[in-house]
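Next comes a concrete protein, fold included:
___
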Amino acid sequence: MKRLTLSIVVCALLMSGCQPSKTYIGTWIGMDESGETVDVTITSDGLMTIREGDDELSISFRQTQYGSLDDVGYYRWSTEYGPLYFVFPDRSDRSTAQLIAPTQPVREFKHMKGDVLLELVRP
């Protein structure tokens, strides 16, 4: 009986996928490599909106992975533009983060190399 219950729970978790994390939901201020600042809002229904003046870009995402490596905390998102990583360089500090686009496909975060799209701070 315990084995059946455990199997049902595991299947339900795998089918539901990962919900967006409360860790990164909210408002951020982002800066790109040229020094331009943008307002970033991440919602619990899997939508990230980036605003710069009157321009706005909305990206739907689904969290597909999360974890930590040494002192780094990370979340992998699946988006219409490809995978993105929301990374906390110091996982104990949830007020600064990076949005990174991997430059090559990888299965594990420890092998990920990518371009930092935005440096993020909480307002």
